[in-house]
Amino acid sequence: MINPALDTPTPGSGAGTASPPDPAARPVPPHAGDPLGDPPRDPLGLLDLFGDDFVGDPYPWLDLLRAQAPVHYDAGTGLWLVSRHQDIRQVLLDPDAFHPHNAQRAVTPLPVPVLRVLARAGFRLPPALADNGTDSHPGLRRLVTRFFHARRVAAAVPAIERIAGELLGAARYGIDADGTCDLFASFAQVLPCRVLMELLGIEDVDPATLIGWSDASLELFWGRPSPQRQLHLAELVGEFHQWLGATVRSGRADPDSFIGALARHRLPDGKPLDPETAVAACFFVFVAGQSTTGLLIATVLRRALAEPGLWARAAHEAGVGEAWVEEVLRREPPVTTWRRITARPVELAGVDLPEGAQLLLMLMGSGSDPEVFDAPERMCPHRTNIRHHLAFGVGRHRCPGASLARTEAAVALRAAARALPAARSTEEEAGPPLLGLLSFRAPLRVTVRASDVHPGPA
């Protein structure tokens, strides 16, 4: 289940979002000393995974980790940070030595009042997908994969384009009325939610509610919210869980729907899948299928608006959108880290780890590893090894929704570039506010201005 806390010291309180840091701020170079002659300082001792400096510009820190301490213990979170591509890949491909059981545990311990809120809602999520290392995982993963495989995603492209067109039409109307439009709130966030609702046959809840529930789940379990904020988030997560439970147990699901397939699913011992695990599977699919894909689309749009000539090319040149999405996944993935726990004492990159060591795999850092990617700081959409990144993981737990996320992001970019052909970002050089959770990072605003925007075909 999603556990209430890691067995680690409680991190400090914070909001889970970060304003852009001072552009001049950078990590202290390795072995740097005080100008007056004080001893050299350890720069990684200043690292705060939730701090404005890291959230706003993580790349200097990630470079420092790979070069100086590829397996580094972070006292603030109690996690071992693994930053090199080859080491992360080794961990993901060895599920016997590195278990997934901690993948969805709450990062910030939940106080008793928050636990009471969740208990009143009957909140319980047994291992199902990302955190499941048992023999039930392969069957459940195959079930999910059947609903998001490449052929089904290709067949869904007309629906994705239709929904994108509707949302962008509303965005153009908003620009005409207000002068600007936030493509995150009006488009990037909503598109994957509506697509997922159509694919899974969900009709009894509105997209705004589902988005709110999903985002609250991300922040409660992967953020560093204050105790008061935790209480508010727990109420939303409890509502989400209750809705999922009622939906799974209603018995009214179409047999061909995702929930219908869960109802028919049998575990390795031949027993039917229990409702609690079915709810856990739905919880993960809804959060991953809408919130993280929305974050990807927001990053794709923001980076495309800033890249000279890319916006116009994406509108009409075949393959440009797909290649750009892949390069964004490499350099700036929405899922920045993932967790594992050692099943026994192991050695990783020359570091001896005890049994039970909590690992944080720095997926974003692996995409900028110069041992794998030439000039990793440059956006090169047609690099030959473009799909060697680890944004979707690798091995037994590789994201089963990767094809859908890639397709939605490419369609979103192409549709937005066609509908708003002269769009220009209104963001200052420092950039928009960023979501800064332990495992998720993306712009929370993608605003375009009206003066240069002219209506175009959606």
Mean of residue pLDDT?
88
**Which percent range describes the beta-strand content?**
5-15%
Name the helix and strand elements from N-terminus to C-terminus, one letter apiece: EHHEEHEHHHEHHHHHHHHEEEEHHEEE
Distance between the termini: 42 Å
User: If helices are DSSP runs of H or I spanning 4 or more residues, what is the number of helices?
Assistant: 16
Query: From the alpha-carbon coordinates, what is the Rg to the nearest angstrom?
Result: 22 Å
Which structural class should the secondary elements be placed in?
alpha+beta
Low-confidence stretches: 1-37, 452-458
Helix content: 40-55%
Shape: globular
Characterize the main sheet: 5 strands, mixed
**In which order are the strands of the major sheet placed?**
2-3-9-6-4
Number of strands: 12
Features:
single chain, 458 residues, alpha+beta, 5-stranded mixed beta sheet, 3-stranded antiparallel beta sheet, globular
Short description:
By secondary structure, this protein is α+β, with helices and mostly antiparallel strands. The chain has 16 helices and 12 strands. Helix content is 46%, strand content 9%.
What does this structure look like?
The protein is an alpha+beta fold and 458 residues long. Helix content is 46%, strand content 9%. The strands form 4 sheets. A 5-stranded mixed β-sheet has the order 2-3-9-6-4, sandwiched between helices. A hairpin with a 4-residue loop joins strand 2 (71-74) and strand 3 (79-82). Helix 8 (190-200) packs antiparallel against helix 12 (275-306) and helix 12 crosses helix 14 (320-331).
